[in-house]
Amino acid sequence: MTEKSVKAGEIIARMDRIPIWSLSYIFIGILGMGFLFTFFDIFDINVSFIQTALTIFHVSSPSSPEIGVLLGPAVLLNLIGYIVGSLLLSPLSDRIGRRNMLMITMAITGLGSLYNALSNDYLNFVSARIATGVGVGADLAIVNTYIGEVAPLNGRAKYTSFVFLFSTLGAGLGLWLGLLLTTPPAPFPLGLPFALGGSGFLAVNGWRVMYGIGALLALIGLVLRFNLPESPRWLISRGRIGEAEAVVRYMEERASRKLKNLPPLPTVISPYVVERLTYLESLRAVIADRRYAKRLAVLIPMWFFGYMTVYVLAAGLTTVLASLGYPPPEAGIIASFGDIGFILCALTIMFVGDRLERSRWTVISVAFTILGGVIIALAKTNLPLSFIGSSILFYGFNLWVPVSYAWSAESFPTRARATGFALTDGLGHIGGGIGTVVVASVVASLVAGGVTSGLAIEVFLLIASFQLISAIIAVTLGHKTANKRLDEISP
User: Fold this and answer.
1) What is the rounded distance in angstroms from the CA atom of residue 173 to the CA atom of residue 179?
2) Please, are residues 43 and 175 in contact by the beta-carbon 8 Å criterion?
3) Which residues form the Major facilitator superfamily (MFS) profile domain (predicted)?
4) What tens digit of pLDDT does each residue of 234-264 get?
């Protein structure tokens, strides 16, 4: 064991003994701004796409099943971009650093959103969605990798969810701005009485304004990220011991001001140090090693089937409800109330997420998804009950996500952590694209036969069935990582 290796192990041990968040909380806000934008981009299409389809795709009616058919490829191609960005760009952070790639990915995402705002036909619209997806896919992988590497070992799910809380704000902003800017005014709760999308400039351009706002949010996130420190674990994995020690010393000083005395050092685990690592070597590190290959074999299908449910509801709930006969403003209002559950799921994981093994949250999550969908289906014209159902639905299909972000990041070694996360989350997103296309086609065919009282229940059970498969995979085959040291889980 070399002197450099011993020193690196001591620095990681010093970092692992810190039981609290020891960087500035401003850095969580900086990372959170990126999440706010990326989820604004995911959810802004939910309500606004109906206006987009009417104005530049020349769809005849806001309740036309054709809108769902057009939405499917748009979401699928966005997710293909996500997969490309996740698999090709995020692994670069294993080579050039987390901070540098976080700035590059946010720039790509903002430019994609600006392209969306300027598009004038379906081809350019979906091309812009692909470009935005490239940035979003890489960004989410690197943010979760970064958080996992700097958070205390007993709080990785907590602080991942803390950042995820900003995504709930972005989702809510996307949903409610969609109602404000792209729907006509209607008496609440059938719509917003003060909605601006019924006349004038916003009647045909409200959706453009939304994507313009997205580009502005990305610019703000990019500027703020200049202040982020590099991950000490990544610095150590590249042999940059002095720089890593400076960051850890700063963390110790901040923690000492709060705790006075830090816990004793844990056992020193010598880290794997490689000063140069190619993309192929990163791939080999997580595919050729049987331990990590087995984890890939569990996490990829877990994400694949889980995202089938997530993206149908996140990007298409308004369209699904409109296809089932709900007036579009009412459908948008029901979907927008779901953000209450979205926020509650982030708060739940912040406070109790690290108390259970990661896989158990998938079971709890799918139970709430089924419950919420059934309540919406049974509520029919009872809007208060529909709002409750939407909140429970969003709580359910999102509850497992921040925990599984932490789980994926924990499951691979520092030298290839972003690569491993990219493979699980990126390939898993293929399911999200397939789910939107499949469900849109099934709903269109079912609606063509006439909307019956039991149709809505069938549709929501179909959507939840994919997440149920995901939960079964996680619980029966998943590995344990909660409250363990990263270098113990993934050496």
Assistant:
1) 10
2) yes
3) 27-482
4) 999 988 999 999 999 999 999 999 998 899 9
